[in-house]
Amino acid sequence: MAKYDHGRGKRGPYFEGWYLKHRTREGEALALIPACHMDPAGRRGASLQVLSDQQSWWLAYPGTEFHAAEQVFRVRLGESLFTGQGMRLHVEREGLSLHGTVRYGPFTPLRSDIMGPFRFLPGMECAHGVLSMGHPLEGSVTLNGKRMDFSGGTGYMETDRGRSFPRAYLWTQCVWQESALNSLMLSVAAIPLAGIQFTGCICAVVYGGKEYRLATYRGARAEQWRGSGAVIRQGKYRLTAELLEGRGCPLRAPAEGVMGRTVHESLRAVVRYRFWEGETLLFDHTDRCAGFEYAEI
């Protein structure tokens, strides 16, 4: 049975967060990141990050206002609720008014855990999960007086947990419709483990009704990865992600359980993705509502 809240009984440092992205039919986007975190001394806190096309907000909550179910996705943070069926937002803070309800249609889960056998390795500083590669949306929210109608739009959902985000990493994601839902997520990171460091890669592509998996544990390697994009090769498969345009907004990221690191994510980047199987180009897709993030310290 899938587990959704891994933090019970944990001692610091620890963090766990859920990334919920929502896209309207017109291409506007809104992402919410509810999270819990614990510093090395075991002090607990929680937060909600809100990311729009142009701006981001950080909201701190006491740990007592965070509640998560273990066997189903259900997170309550303050007066807002996030579940596998949808979200209900009630946020009124200085500089941010966010209210509304969005319902989720059926998720598109991966066939297996994106981390593969790496999920069993002790000491990993960060583990990634994908809850849905894409799902339909119904409903609307009002953000600082502006109504965003997500009916007929598309959602995406993933999660991270551990102690810290990697020292250096690239992440990108997009969902698009042709005859069927197509979706892609890619993450490349510098991974410290047992006194060594290696470049790890996880990637899932859902295209034409088929799921493709590129990952270090399947022999994938990053031939190139930098702030402008990445090139990934695994056997007969090759994926390129090229950032054409994107302005990042600041987000907070965990370092030893403390949300004290600043990274920048573009929620509406323009990214060109190309995916080959041997000499056959399966798709050449430029997405104008892609998520893109590159960070290094």
Structure write-up:
The chain is globular. It has strands at residues 14-23, 29-38, 44-52, 56-62, 66-68, 74-77, 80-83, 86-93, 96-104, 126-143, 146-149, 154-162, 168-177, 181-193, 196-207, 210-215, 221-226, 229-234, 237-245, 249-255, 258-277, 280-296. The mean pLDDT is 95. The protein is 0% helix and 68% strand. The chain is mainly β and 297 residues long. The strands form two sheets. Strands 1, 2, 3, 4, 5, 6, 7, 8, 9, 10, 11 and 12 form a twelve-stranded antiparallel sheet that branches. Strands 13, 14, 15, 16, 17, 18, 19, 20, 21 and 22 form a ten-stranded antiparallel sheet that branches.
Query: Helix and strand string, N-terminal first?
Result: EEEEEEEEEEEEEEEEEEEEEE
Helix content: under 10%
Average pLDDT, all residues: 95
Main sheet specs:
12 strands, antiparallel
The rounded distance between the terminal residues' Cα atoms is 37 Å
Low-confidence stretches: none
Q: How many DSSP helices?
A: 0
Q: If you compute it from the alpha carbons, what radius of gyration comes out, rounded to the nearest whole angstrom?
A: 18 Å
Global structural class: mainly beta
Name the beta content range: over 45%
For the secondary structure, the number of strands is 22
Shape: globular
